[in-house]
Amino acid sequence: MKSSTGIRYWISTTNHKDIGSLYLWFSLLMFFAAGAMALVIRMELSSPGRVLVDPNFYNQMVTLHGLVMIFGAIMPALAGFANWQIPLMIGAPDMAFPRMNNFSFWLLPVGFTLMLGTLFVDGGAPNFGWTMYAPLSTTYGPPSTDYMILAIHVLGVSSILASMNIIATIINLRAPGMSYMRMPIFVWSWFITSFLLLAIMPILAGTVTMLLTDRHFGTSFFSAAGGGDPLMFQHLFWFFGHPEVYVLIMPAFGIISEVIPTFSRKPLFGARLMIYAIAAIAVLSFIVWVHHMFVTGVSVWVKIFFMFTTLLVAVPTAIKIFNWTATMYRGAITFEAPMLFSVGFLFLFTFGGLSGLMLGIVPADYQYQDTYFVVGHFHYAIVTGVYYAILAGVYYWLPKWTGRMYSQTLAAWHFWVSTIAANLTFLPMHFLGLAGMPRRIPDYAIHFADFNAVVSVGGFLFGFAQLIFVYLVVQNVWGKKGYGSVSDQVWECAKGLEWLLPSPVPHHSHDEPPLVTKASYEWD
Amino acid sequence: MSHQPATPPSYLPILASVSMLIFAIGSVGWVQGKGYGLVTLILGVCALILVCAQWFYRVVIDGQTFLANNAVFDRSLRIGVMWFIFTELMFFVGLFGVLFYIRVWALPVLSGQVGSKLMTHVLLWPDFISNWPLLQTPDQSLSQIEAIEPMGIPLLNTLILLLSGLTITISHFMVLKSQLKKSALWLAITIFLGGSFLGLQLYEYVHAVSGGLKLGSGIYGSIFYLMTGFHGLHVFIGTLVLMVMWCRMFLGHFSAKEHFGFEAAIWYWHFVDVVWLMLFVFVYWI
What we know:
The complex is a heterodimer of chains A (524) and B (286).
Chain A: H1 7-12, H2 16-44, H3 55-90, H4 98-117, H5 145-172, H6 185-216, H7 230-264, H8 271-284, H9 300-312, H10 314-328, H11 337-360, H12 362-368, H13 372-402, H14 408-434, H15 449-478
Chain B: H1 12-31, H2 37-64, H3 71-110, H4 119-124, H5 153-176, H6 180-210, H7 218-250, H8 260-285
Helix pairs in contact in B: 1-2, 3-7, 3-8, 5-6, 5-8, 6-7, 7-8
């Protein structure tokens, strides 16, 4: 085997474990880049008036924070899990297209060179929010908008290729006996997510292409003067954008569905229903997009339709929450780090989901639209939802990957400090929003000052708490004195093919496919 | 063999990624009218083409060496190509969504025919009348332009593409009967038909531009050129792929049992065909 240290090794590797690690490290890097932007935002908002940056730069931070967190931190982290875990969990030796897999990853640094490079272009980075609404991004967009458009194209290609790879792997490379209904829930969640990505990424590509032609070739797609419609941009964007947020949450559901049974020492309650629920959420995600546009003047019947479909999403989601809770019911629960983050997820993601229901109600949304209530809502769903699930996943599978344990004490500190800080940060945002503080504005009225100070303190605390995580991971992967090696099983009650392999997982695994006789969620 | 053997490390992906970066920087430079733009763009496109050619060559070689007769890999390729075409189809679904939204909703609203009268209609453009094809924009900025006559070149192009769907099916049928020479002949006819389509499309563009219809001629010009342009690009790529398949046929790469490369090209060609039928009906005709 070649040495796994040189740059030549890493740029040419076709091994799913190497590529999974690349995805995860890249995601960590982008997480801190976008996190630093969030801290600039929080610094500016820590007290009324101008604190740190000028309003235009503030807008650039808001835009890039959103784009980089979604496309650079969360999606690559989940793709990293897909790369590491899907072949291990279905008994495949590697992904179906290993070379294309490498390409999917190495497009990401290209995309983010373009995306972050916008900060150094004359006129500054894009400053219209990650939603890129026309005409802010067409008539009034800075020159760097073009780099952002090309970056989105590159990232879209990456996502599409990765999704094709995952679909082909799951359909074709399952071990003998691994029928669809025996697949682990995490694999199912990525399977469905991949189809969603294949359906929505081309829509985004077409939409930003129209932005580009509107900007430079005189077309009128988003200009009413030429017969187009700026509102159409919002329809197109959210037709992509709403499934996109489910792309983020569904693999997170998958991770939680793996972790909770292990530490409850009970099989997953209603496993099949979990699969159906993910599928239902995926289908519904295509018919809810107008709930982002309730105040744009769409007709009242359209609003009512989309209000009902939006509230319908609560049904499959509630099934999932109920099943996780039922899995824990009368289980012999222990609170190792993955379980801490999963239980945190259960409480806090549910909280974010419930505020989503409030936002889905048309007359109420008139009040909440574009306030900090929305910011609070989706940060509960994404930070204490998706990000917590990612942390749970890392703490769950990292010992399997490296063969070493990490400090449970420090990980518990990571959890508790993060959870206190996250609530300190995102809970007051709801009150600010209900009191009328608009989002995306660098200044605010004096009576919002106290809560904003709390939010900023929470934000910085949350940011620095993540350094514990970095320390734990670095220490686990490279550290000399570890916290002991782990058994093949790692966790007492972990089920599934990956736990039958040695720890650390050898560079090539499942060369001889194992014979599967029952699903990992069917216990003896 | 129930699994495919490991793929050796490759530098093609990183080369493709770097080409993509050059291409992206070049495109931005070009649309912004920078001096380095066009040169960089051409450099990026050339680099991409070279890497793609090398990559497809590698896939062909792999298919004849360590992945030869590997049923698992064959199935992976089929799944991959199928879902790639699906994602391409979704790109056009997005564009058709734009077309229908504009025709059914945006223009009637702008002209005050549908829904409550918007301020844009009442205050800005009370004289605007919604039509399709839209030959005069709400701000009345267009001088005389001509709509494209659907029953001329577009109809001919429809017949050409339908015919090419037939000829490529005959070509496929001949491969299945191991009559490779006849297959190559029918494939050559298909390539000729594809080339004719592109030539006629180009002629139509020249004709349309001289009739005053440009990319900047309001929403009609925008939609017309973007949709038919992207479709034409796909026909162009499809024709190139068919040409490669024609060469591979002479290199003896295909047999009645093993010719997935050709089959994938046929699937792609049918996809291009179906999209055109939709274009013909909804962009040109109705």
